Amino acid sequence: MKLLVKNIRGKEWFIFLLVMLSGLAQVVMDVTIPDFMARLTDILQSDRVVLGDVIREGSLMLLFAFLSLIIGLAGAYGVAVIAGLISMRIREQIFGKILDFSLAEVSDFGTASLITRCTNDVTQIQNVVVVVLIVAFKAPLSAVLAFGKIVGKNMIWTITMGVIMLFIMIVSLLVLRHIMPLMVRQQYETDDLTRFDGEHLRGIQVIQAFNSKRFHSARFQAANDRLNDTVKRSGYSFTFLSAFSNSMMNFFNLSVYITGAFIIMNSSPAEKTGLFSDLVTFSAYALIVMAAFVSLVQAYLSIAKAMASERRISEVLNAEVSIRDGAGNASGEETDSVLSFRNVSFSYPGASKTMLKDISFEAKKGETVAIIGATGSGKTTLLNLIPRLFDVSGGKILLNGKDIRDYTLFELRNRIGYIPQKSILFTGTIAENIDYGENGKLAAAIDDIRRAAGTGMADGFIREKEEGYSYRVSEGGRNFSGGQRQRLAISRAVCRDPEVYLFDDSFSALDFKTDREVRSKLRKEAKDAVMLIVAQRIGTIKNADRIIVLDKGSIAAQGRHAELMKSCGIYREIAATQLSEEEMKAYA
Amino acid sequence: MRDTVKLSDFIRPHRKALAAAVIMGMLSAVLNVSVPAFISRISDVIGRDLFGNINLAEVRKFGLICLLLIAGGFLFADLQNRIMVEVSRKFTGELRKALDDKVDRLPLHYFDIHVNGDTLSILTNDVNTLNQALLNGTIAPILSGVTMIGCLVLMFVTNVTMAVGSVLATLAGMFVMAFALAKTNPYVKRQQEVLGELNGDVSESLNGFVVIKSFNAEKDVRESFCKKNEEMFRDNLRAQFTNGIMSPLMGFSGNLGYVTVCIIGAYLIYAGTPGVSIASVIAFILYVRQFSTPLAILAGSLAQLQPAFAASGRIFGFLNEEEMPEAEAGKAAFPEKTEGAVEFDHISFGYVPEVTVIHDFSAVIKPGSKVAIVGPTGAGKSTLINLLLGYYETGSGTIRIDGTDISEVPKEDLRNRIGYVPQDVWTFEGSIKDNIRYMNDSLSDEDIDRIIGLAGLEHFVSMLPEGADTVLDENCSISAGQKQLITIARAMAKNAPILVLDEATSNIDTRMEKLVQAAVDELIKGRTSFVIAHRLSTIRNADLILVMKDGDICEQGDHRELMEKKGFYYELYNSQFESED
């Protein structure tokens, strides 16, 4: 509810007021129009029908009806505006919040769940807003108006009405208690389905290669059945309630007449006429009260139903973001190192296992630092700490002498060019993909983009495309080969002109020649930049100013290639798998 | 040519149930409507003997009838609900299943040009919209339609002039309604599309989250999302408005009809038209009042059905997407025992017809040989693998396995014979064990343990608290190299006669790679294997090296021959060892 109120702003409250007034006016019309109808019928039933009277009364009624139509249209417009605005804003807030998240929060919620929360859950909320806006003002008013006509008329009937309304309420609350958990479950089961569907779409190539369609279909089917079962149970409860309320209203009408018969029987003749006419009006107006009551109960149920979605959305909006901006003004220490790791240790949030232990090294202006180590030794984890995709658990990382947690994230990341292990590209043109994001400077001109692509050795294959830099990239870059994707990802980082390059095994899909050419171009283009290179190939890192050998999250050794060949057993072993015998001998 | 799939194909199996629901609904409506009639009889009974002895027996009798009617009305309504809920459950289940199956029959090309999140939106949001409409929007309009027809018949029987008058007034309202619906239809359609695009944006952003964050691209991504979100608002506004005006519009047209009839009736009485009595005019007016309620319900349902039609358009558009051609079963078959001879016969291919990626590629591979495909990035190595696995149809030329054209064999048979480690690592949400066993249910846990050992995963798995039962999901911090080892283990478990490794070890450290390579070599002994690798050390022992450049083979031979040739391969090989200054 807070979510809704918060998202109506300023002048929109006037629209809200309009919706309210329109609701009120419509109720008044609804009550008045039958009077006109009755009068018309009376005229027709009178002994002498005067055509003029009919036309006069008819025109009046039409005028009234037309007024009601206009008010109705205005109200409908108001409802549409408010419902649309609320859902637009909520959607925007969720997405904005997701963008503020760090990786830890994204994996906590799960990708699929965030997708459903951003679309499906918002739709649920919007539907309810419409129901509430239409019913919430009309129903209580017509209930009050109608109740005013019968209040104090007859104690017994009033009590009957109260008892039956109470009964409907109790049943509704029972239904509510039954469906609330179902609604929550339904949304989570929708997440499951989204997750399996997404998995299916992403893994289609492997799934086809392994003929594992049946396996995934079975999983999907199970999730599908679970969801359908939940939807069925909650759906049934809803329809049950409306059928039940309907019958209860008829039942009430009946009980008023039956009790009426007995009351009139046992009353004094003087009271009888009054009682009888009371009976007719009471039943007519009490039905209006009950109908309003029932629609209110149903509106309330719809709200309750959407509460599951509201809670899921609030969870996202209120989630604590674990990685936040630094103050940006703290002063650092004097150092000639661009990047320094000081006794850094790290474990993933919620995991007990230490991924990195006591990592310390320095990288000065223009230096290349390479990181090599076994699969799972923590190389990627180490790189991820620098743009603060995760925060260190112990120790600190300094950039130009200042703790990276003292920078604003924007400022910190402006200085970094990250080429992740998986070269993810986005739908859009090649140019958009290279000139990606912000670096605190002006957007790159096409010449800058070309230069970046030239350094990343992507210019060649881009030129071969008829559309050149306007060529459309499909999601994830599926319409490029693995090596081309890597070169585009490298160009994208070059285009930022960063102080620190982070290459996470970013040359793996390149042939050796391209690998070398890219690196030598980079060195020329970005003389002063620090390059941190994670690689498997000795050739890629041989000339680095410092090579760090990671072993199970700790630094086993660091030094230059030649030193490590002599001093570090692990390094020698890695080299032995790649170098020719002559080369190995040279270091023996 | 495959028949197009239509919504009616999914409705048809439930037509009996739907008919039953309509009948139940009608019975319930009739019973519920007749309750007031009997209550007014009670009222009559009371009124008749107001000052005498009210006939309580009669009151009781009518009361009992009413009770029965109410109970019956409730019972039939409940039955209708039960049927509809069940139908909608089955319908949605079947539709989702069909969509899920369809995903597997699409050519890979479909995914090259569509955003996953948009497809996902069809599978989830659009199906939900359609289901909601089926559940809430089908019976009510049918019932209203029937009631309206009933009223119309009674009206025409009573008086044709008045009936025409009231129908004309109603038609005017209907016309405005139809106009409004037609006007907003494109926006409603667009609304479902934009919802899909939004879904695509969210899903793409989450998949590329690391890049967005480290490139400070949040603002751009957010802006692009907001632009679509605002478009969504505008489309939604129109759709919602149309939806909202239906009921006031119909209310007005009902009132218009009422007044029209009153005036015509008055005129008829005034003119003394034979056969027109005051009573008949009054009766007629009652029909008109009955007529307007279902009209309003019908209008409301139509507006609700509109997004469902848009959703259905997207769903069936997807279901009717062109499928990957599938060879007829039994047209051709591989020999019982696969030898693993592979022949590429003048293959040419382009992902889009205008751009050929592979030009006239031919090669003959003897059974049991280890074939390496090397070449610069973008030379078409993975494309060749995509063709061998039947993901795309060759433009021209034939690929044969043991002499059988692979395009004439069902894809399932083809792929049963190939173990595949793709370039892009993909694991599904499930335990490491399940990811390795993957469809090979005959493998015991011991077998899996052995494969874990062979694939170099033993140490990694033993460090996990839950070992091989650890579930791989988004929360699992597992390195890309370890994932790659799992995909290799998966291919090992498949134990197929032909093995394809597309840069299968690119993220694995070279010591580990050597161990895995040894295991793989052991595994592929006597089998045909295709290896794409940039680290040429891993392929030195290949029987045949195909050197690709710009979509064609420029050299082939074994390592020694190619080195002696001092050609392109020689250059590539030596480039590994050159230093950069």
Structure write-up:
The complex is a heterodimer of chains A (588) and B (581). In chain A, 64% of the residues lie in helices and 11% in strands. Chain A is built from 21 helices and twelve strands. In chain A, helix 5 crosses helix 7 (155-202). With 581 residues, chain B is an alpha/beta fold. Chain B has 19 helices and twelve strands. Chain B has helices at 7-11, 15-48, 56-105, 108-113, 116-137, 139-158, 160-207, 209-214, 218-270, 278-319, 381-388, 411-416, 432-437, 445-454, 458-463, 480-494, 510-524, 559-565, 568-575; strands spanning 342-349, 358-365, 370-374, 396-401, 404-405, 418-421, 430-431, 471-472, 498-502, 528-532, 544-549, 552-557. In chain B, helix 3 packs antiparallel against helix 5 and helix 5 (116-137) packs antiparallel against helix 7 (160-207). The longest helix of chain B has 53 residues, at 218-270. The two termini of chain B are 62 Å apart. In chain B, 51% of the residues are buried. The model of chain B has no long low-confidence stretch (mean pLDDT 86). At the A-B interface, helix 2, helix 3, helix 4, helix 5 and helix 6 of A face helix 2, helix 3, helix 4, helix 5 and helix 7 of B.
